[in-house]
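thought: user wants a sequence for this fold. calling inverse folding tool.
action: design(structure=
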């Protein structure tokens, strides 16, 4: 069965060009691509005129929760949410139970992914055993078992010596180290950014330096060890400055920023509502602007959601008791398109680069390219489609979002993975 996708503008290497695509469901490959292909090149024609085809989005920061947290999300539900959001590759964080911290655990996890995933899942291995910060994992063995990179996300690596050893080993194995930057000795029981909202709600604050101190420490360790050091969910102005300086110094540091830190700041928190609680927290307006600027000038390399589903009961608790984290896969593109592309702050091509080519390049992934002979994995976007975000309609098990009820324009209407539809809205247009 061959399908001709006809009439769309296709995003490729920073440009949008009119192209028709023929996809084989049998091989899962793109067979032909040209400005105009006739109907007889395929068994079926899908009219995508007026729509955009983008390589499937890549999200290198996703919590799928399985194994151990299936009440929050599963590999199946999380990858369905990914497909709905236009993503065909997601990288799964290792703060699960058990943690993929050995070759055997990683192999077990790969088998679960093989059975249950609807899009590609690349799992992270942990930096330390059980993410406990005490004993180093075997970077080489984890890499051999298919680990995408190493991280202890959910918690910072507290000791500089441990991070030094981790980076040294990772550099030798040729695997990146991705860091959740949080110095627990600077945490002081905080739940929100140490700013006016925390003061107003009388909640302990999380300093900007709780994050930036780790980044400053780690870029120097990356320089010393030659490791590829990737900073997760950058949230402060000082962090952007430290990363900018490190890049200028030629250190191999890359960084991601999440949609919520680009879209929101502490002033948007309406009150004691845990839908606005995540780690790192929503910072000041000044930090938010520094993140936007950092993304535009290339200090921050790309966007990753930090999709962090939790149960409704957990997130109904007051801020002081609820867990940190919000979902992101189903809302990222509509929100970023509405509030940054429609407002002309970002070009559509830039946004698509931050969701496809840029993460692929940073991590040397052979995905995110559309060409004859390449895998057919792409998403079809209808930029005119208006809809109101409705958390109750999420396919993710996590309904936790601060964006419930927000009006958006533009969304994925089809997602193709291995040549097959993994998301198809009733009306394509
Ligand atoms: N981001 C969050 O607020 N929470 C994440 C952990 C993390 O990314 O640090 C989670 O696992 O729930
Ligand atoms: Zn984190
Ligand atoms: Zn995370």
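)
observation: tool returned 429 residues.
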């Amino acid at each position: 069965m061959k399908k001709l996708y006809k009439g769309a503008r296709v995003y490729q290497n920073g440009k949008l060009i009119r192209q028709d695509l023929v996809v084989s469901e049998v091989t899962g490959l793109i067979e032909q691509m040209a400005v105009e292909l006739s109907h007889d090149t395929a068994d079926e024609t899908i009219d995508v005129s007026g729509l955009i085809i983008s390589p499937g989005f890549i999200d290198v920061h996703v919590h799928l929760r399985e194994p151990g947290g299936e009440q929050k999300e599963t590999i199946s539900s999380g990858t369905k949410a990914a497909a709905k959001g236009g993503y065909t590759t997601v990288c799964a964080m290792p703060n699960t139970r058990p943690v993929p911290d050995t070759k055997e655990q990683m192999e077990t996890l790969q088998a679960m992914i093989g059975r249950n995933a609807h899009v590609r899942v690349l799992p992270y291995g942990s930096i330390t055993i059980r993410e406990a910060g005490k004993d180093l994992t075997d970077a080489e063995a984890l890499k051999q078992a298919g680990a995408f990179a190493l991280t202890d996300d959910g918690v910072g690596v507290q000791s500089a010596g441990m991070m030094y050893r981790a980076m040294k080993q990772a550099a030798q194995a040729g695997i990146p180290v991705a860091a959740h930057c949080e110095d627990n000795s600077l945490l002081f029981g905080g739940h929100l950014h140490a700013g006016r909202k925390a003061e107003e709600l009388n909640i302990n604050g999380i300093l900007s330096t709780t994050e930036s101190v780790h980044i400053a420490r780690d870029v120097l360790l990356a320089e010393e060890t030659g490791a590829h050091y990737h900073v997760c969910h950058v949230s402060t102005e000082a962090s952007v400055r430290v990363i900018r300086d490190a890049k200028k110094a030629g250190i191999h540091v890359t960084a991601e920023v999440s949609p919520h830190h680009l879209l929101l700041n502490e002033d948007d928190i309406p009150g004691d509502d845990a839908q606005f609680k995540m780690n790192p927290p929503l910072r000041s307006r000044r930090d938010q602007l520094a993140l936007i600027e950092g993304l535009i000038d290339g200090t921050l390399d790309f966007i990753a959601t930090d999709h962090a589903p939790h149960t409704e009961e957990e997130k109904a608790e007051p801020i002081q008791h609820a867990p940190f984290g919000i979902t992101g896969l189903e809302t990222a593109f509509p929100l970023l398109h509405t509030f940054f592309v429609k407002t002309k702050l970002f070009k559509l091509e830039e946004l698509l680069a931050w969701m496809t080519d840029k993460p692929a390049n940073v991590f040397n992934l052979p995905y995110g390219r559309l060409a004859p002979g390449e895998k057919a994995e792409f998403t079809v976007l209808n930029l005119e489609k208006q809809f109101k975000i409705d958390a109750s309609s999420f396919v993710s098990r996590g309904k936790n979002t601060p964006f419930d009820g927000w009006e958006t324009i533009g969304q994925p209407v089809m997602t193709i993975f291995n040549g097959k539809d993994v998301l198809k809205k009733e009306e394509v247009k």
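thought: summarizing for user.
answer: Here is the designed sequence. The first strand starts at residue 2 and ends at 6.
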